[in-house]
């Protein structure tokens, strides 16, 4: 990877999972299907982001994930995440950690997601205050990422952390990226979000807009737009189609290479980790569009493997294949 100064990332991943990957030679709904192989690892968006940073970043870069863990699946997630070198802020909870199952057949992937167990207010407070003081972790980080939908009972977790970041902004200017779209209206209205990263479907569902461009105008340019300030970014992925990056005054289109996809689950987490790392590293400086291109390259490289691997040589090759073009954008004058 390119040389960079040390950085630190706190990923809030309140909805972890025990991720199981079953690979089939054939798969027919309504029939008995025997898997050829089974792999399992710690899943969840925040867990994937922190793990990808450990694979991509410098050895001294801090990768920290804050999460709720419960039951035997939670024990597995804790052990697997720790084995990757990721530091953890853990609040143990009564509800068992969910299991998610990926079915792979010849490049086709189906994801089965268990319902998330509810957490109590005492458990949320424990993650924030008691067992795992997030405030104490913040000075060690240059960036914070809100990763994935919060479980029932923790709907205001991101809002509470965003308000803490806003209150302490004078002592350290953390870069805050939000990588989720459900229940984040109040978080966006704090004015503290630096980067909103979603896919095309998510950004249209969030705004109700008919197109990604219309959604970007609503988020960045309208009179009451929550990202209407210099430096704020909207990054939108769209599978194999070109991705888009918007600021309030400029926009870019980024092409991505055509891939023989093995498993795309977790590709967005790799993109988030490398994008945010590239944005916040001190040297060499990276433009927002180039930082996003590196993130997309990481996401593409992840798709080449059944398990969540991130290999530097593959990321470098993918980056060479990504082009960046400034696009016409009727943003703020």
TrEMBL record:
One of its GO terms (molecular function) is ATP binding. SUPFAM superfamilies: Ribokinase-like. Keywords: ATP-binding, Kinase, Nucleotide-binding, Transferase. It comes from the Eukaryota. GO terms for biological process: carbohydrate metabolic process. InterPro entries: PfkB_dom, Ribokinase-like, Tagatose/fructose_Pkinase. It holds the Pfam family PfkB. Transmembrane segments: none annotated. Residues 29-305 form the Carbohydrate kinase PfkB domain. Signal peptide: none annotated. Belongs to the carbohydrate kinase PfkB family. PANTHER family: 1-PHOSPHOFRUCTOKINASE-RELATED (PTHR46566), ATP-DEPENDENT 6-PHOSPHOFRUCTOKINASE ISOZYME 2 (PTHR46566:SF2). This is Carbohydrate kinase PfkB domain-containing protein.
């Amino acid at each position: 990877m390119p040389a960079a100064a040390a950085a630190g990332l706190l990923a809030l991943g309140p909805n972890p999972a025990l991720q199981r990957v079953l690979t089939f030679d054939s798969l027919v709904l309504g029939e008995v299907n025997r898997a050829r192989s089974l792999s399992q690892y710690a899943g969840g968006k925040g867990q994937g982001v922190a793990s990808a940073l450990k694979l991509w970043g410098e050895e001294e870069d801090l990768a920290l994930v804050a999460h709720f863990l419960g039951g035997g699946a939670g024990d597995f997630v804790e052990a697997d995440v720790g084995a990757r070198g990721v530091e953890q802020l853990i609040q143990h909870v009564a509800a068992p950690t969910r299991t998610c199952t990926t079915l792979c057949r010849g490049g086709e992937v189906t994801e089965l997601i268990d319902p998330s167990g509810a957490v109590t207010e005492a458990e949320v407070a424990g993650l924030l205050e008691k067992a795992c003081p997030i405030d104490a972790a913040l000075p060690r980080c240059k960036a914070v990422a809100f990763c994935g939908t919060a479980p029932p009972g923790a709907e205001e977790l991101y809002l509470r952390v965003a308000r803490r970041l806003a209150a302490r902004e004078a002592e350290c200017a953390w870069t805050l990226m939000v990588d989720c779209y459900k229940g984040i209206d109040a978080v966006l209205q704090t004015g503290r979000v630096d980067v909103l990263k979603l896919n095309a479907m998510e950004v249209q569902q969030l705004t109700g807009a008919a197109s990604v461009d219309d959604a970007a105008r609503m988020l960045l340019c309208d009179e009451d737009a929550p990202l209407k300030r210099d430096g704020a970014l909207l990054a939108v992925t769209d599978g194999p189609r070109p991705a888009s990056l918007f600021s309030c005054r400029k926009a870019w289109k980024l092409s991505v290479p055509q891939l023989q996809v093995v498993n795309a689950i977790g590709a967005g987490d790799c993109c988030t980790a490398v994008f945010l790392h590239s944005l916040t590293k001190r040297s060499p400086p990276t433009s927002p569009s180039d930082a996003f291109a590196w993130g997309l390259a990481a996401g593409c490289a992840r798709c080449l493997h059944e398990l969540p691997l991130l290999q530097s040589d593959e990321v470098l090759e993918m980056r060479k294949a990504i082009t960046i073009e400034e696009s016409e954008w009727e943003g703020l004058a």
